[in-house]
Design goal:
65% helix, globular, 18 helices, single chain, Cytochrome C Oxidase, Chain A, mainly alpha
Length: 539
């Protein structure tokens, strides 16, 4: 007697074991807390990112209330307690968690996989984010003085011979835990792109957003350990009353390139990673592949790495892209955006565009970039050179380039993939409402820094406070795309081009019942084109 069983595909035993473990608990809180399902993890990461940004805005407003009669400008000046709290909650926790959540949910679908490469490690990364953010929040609550601010280019050195307060050490520990979570998440996403693609899906066949995820993950993988090393130095400096960051130009350079937010590649990486997300939205709206061929993935993967190259090159911190004057690094970082814009405009010709909800936040996310560039040129013309004025101006640049642009871009992504996330197709009106709130909020939040840089008085802080409140309203309006009730939308409501639209909305546990042939980044477009040529049905 002979056996004729078919040999299992490579990795089938591991995948079956993962599915068996995942099926032990189907419902309830336990299924989410310990989940290795990329869909659960993606939604939890995204929801936590939204909550962190809202918390940062609310805390900044609450912290400002006691100082309204003293120095309202503290709301927009780096180095203050509330500026530090807003920096950690928004830029160090919120934006990275939101981006990781969207990538965690979408990338396995775009590469035809049914799980992450290292699901348990990714689950650990999520809870490291939560624990680290909690430790940082406690540090700001119990501290009554200024904590060392990552938004300030000048470190607040420890007093020699005196131990740091518990709050400072707690903040350092919290930031280190968040950094570990970021590092683990970057490893998982990078290995997923490289190793968990479906059979027949070559690396050159993955869509633009996946290429951006690849570039951003690699950038985080290379730069986050340096941030961790800087935190270790800061802990020794603070705990033992050292002078590492108070030892002249050398200590200042270490601070500016390892800990200061504007001196690290993480400051701009999520803005540049949004290029791939935008490319997928534009291609879906145009209902055709983007013109440019290999140039598109090169832009998407290379843009985040460009921030790393400039950082390694030792760009002087005060001549960074956030300086009050137009600088060469700023123009270099804007080059991929310009190339992507030319690609989008070239692709419009001969297309049959349709109004999809994500187009509104996509267009809105380009506006802060244009405003920041225009104000940078105005800053050069007005000769903004004073230390206080320059610091305030850089804070405005930080808001527009590192908060407004990536936040609106990620909002576009959440709206675009809302059918996959929650099984609901948002309306144009709902998308427009979210876009208006977020755009108005972040612009109002950033303008006080610019106005203070141009010499305005403390009264401009009121504009920033109003911007924080409007931004919170926009985030709350965006929340249903992540935590709202699940619907049953069509699998492909937009006539999408990329592989994720071949799955149900929301996807089943194993994502795909059947994967269509993949010979390009746009397999569904290829299938429709082939069906049209033969007079058949693409399905």
């Amino acid at each position: 007697m002979t056996l004729t069983d078919t040999r299992p595909a490579a990795g089938a035993f591991d995948d079956a074991a993962d599915d068996a473990r995942a099926s032990i608990v189907e419902h309830g809180l336990t299924a989410w807390i310990g989940s290795g399902d990329h869909k659960h993890l993606g939604l939890m990461f995204a929801a936590f990112g939204l909550a962190s940004i809202v918390t940062g805005m609310v805390c900044a407003f609450v912290f400002q209330l006691p100082s309204m009669g003293d120095s309202p400008l503290a709301f927009v000046m780096p180095g203050s307690r509330l500026a530090s709290a807003g920096t950690v909650a928004t830029f160090v926790v919120g934006i990275p968690a939101l981006w990781i959540g969207l990538a965690t949910y979408v990338v396995p679908l775009q590469v035809g996989g049914h799980r992450l490469a290292l699901p348990r490690l990714h689950n650990l990364a999520l809870w490291l984010f939560v624990v680290g953010a909690g430790l940082s929040a406690v540090a700001f609550v119990i501290d009554e003085t200024r904590l060392s601010s990552l938004a300030s280019s000048v470190p607040a050195a420890a007093t020699e011979g005196q131990a740091a307060t518990d709050a400072v050490e707690l903040l350092i520990a919290g930031l280190a835990v968040v950094a570990l979570g970021t590092l683990f998440a970057a490893i998982v996403l990078l290995v997923t792109v490289l190793n968990r693609r479906a059979g027949g899906v070559r690396l050159r066949h993955v869509p633009a957003f996946t290429w951006s995820t690849f570039g951003a993950s690699l950038t985080l993988l290379l730069s986050t350990p340096v941030f961790l090393a800087g935190l270790v130095l800061l802990w020794f400096d603070q705990h033992y009353g050292g002078t590492v960051f108070a030892s002249g130009a050398g200590g200042l350079r270490i601070w500016q390139h390892e800990l200061w937010l504007l001196g690290r590649p993480e400051a701009i990486v999520f803005t540049l990673a949004g290029i791939g997300l935008s490319c997928d939205i534009v291609a879906t709206a145009l209902r055709r592949p983007l013109i440019g061929g290999p140039l598109v993935p090169a832009i998407c993967a290379g843009a985040p790495l460009l921030a790393l190259v400039l950082w390694i090159g030792g760009t002087p911190a005060l001549r960074s892209p956030f300086a009050p004057i137009a600088t060469v690094p700023a123009l270099v970082l804007l080059a991929p955006v310009g190339l992507a814009l030319l690609t989008w405009l070239a692709s419009v010709r001969g297309s049959a565009p349709r109004a999809v909800p994500a187009v509104l936040p996509f267009l809105a996310h380009l506006l802060p970039l244009a405003v920041a560039l225009a104000l940078m040129i105005a800053g050069a013309a007005s000769d903004v050179t004073g230390a206080t004025e320059s610091a305030a101006f850089r804070n405005g640049q930080l808001v527009l380039l590192c908060l407004a642009t990536p936040l609106l871009g990620l909002a576009a992504g959440l709206v675009h993939w809302s059918p996959k996330l929650r099984g609901r197709v948002p309306t144009i009106a709902a998308s427009g409402g979210v876009t208006l709130l977020l755009l108005a909020g972040v612009l109002l939040l950033g303008f006080p820094g610019y106005l203070a840089g141009f010499g305005a008085d403390d009264g401009v802080a009121t504009i920033g406070i109003a911007g924080a409140l409007v931004t919170v309203l926009g985030m709350l309006a965006l929340l249903p795309t992540v935590v709202g009730p699940a619907g049953n939308a069509p699998g492909d409501p937009y006539e999408g081009l990329t592989l994720e639209w071949a799955a149900a909305s929301p996807p089943v546990r194993h994502n795909f019942d059947e994967i269509p042939p993949v010979r390009s980044p746009y397999p569904l477009y290829d299938a429709r084109a082939a069906a049209t040529a033969t007079g058949g049905d693409a399905r």
